[in-house]
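Notebook entry, structure prediction.
Reason for the run: the old model in the group folder had no record of what sequence produced it. Starting over properly, with the input documented here first.
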Amino acid sequence: MSLNLELKTITDQIKNVPGDIVELGVHTGNNSVQFLWLCPDKKYFGFDTFSGYTEEDIESSPNKEGLIDNKGRWNHDPQETISRIEKFKEDFDLGDFEIIVGDLKETFPRHINENKVKKISLLYVDCNAYLPAIKGIDAAYPLMSEGAIICIDEHQVGGETKALNEASEKYGLQVIETGFKFESGPNSNPSRYVVKK
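New structure, fully documented this time:
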């Protein structure tokens, strides 16, 4: 496995920021192993349905047609992802992780209410749809430390972009463009982010 240098530019900024890493949208765990490798002292929480989008997610997104076109693409056995991350964690003696299966609009707030997620240094939004992105950002924001980052990897105007722009206005944050060009492949390529003041 090779190091994702683009993700490293984001994780380097939160190394000394208190809190764990939360990713909204896990799929096969490509980002998961990168986050564990790049930030071995932080716990990783990954939330995903592993069965694509809900109808509500599709209807609320500005990129509705794209979500419909890719509807079956995101179906994946969560146990395969968990096994992959466990093997990687053992091979490199890395930190703790937890994968939470289900609609993150429900599972993420429940995890917070149960005090399982206490403090966040990085919220990585990779769910493509608007509603889970904005609900996830709003749920995470009160737990985010000063200097914590909300990052998306969407390189077109879609649900993640809409959610990040709304959150930046709501919380008075500046959207920063990474300048990375989109490249297809197994790893995410962060496009925009905000830093909590």
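Summary: Residues 3 and 34 are 7 Å apart (CA to CA).
The old model has been moved to the deprecated folder.
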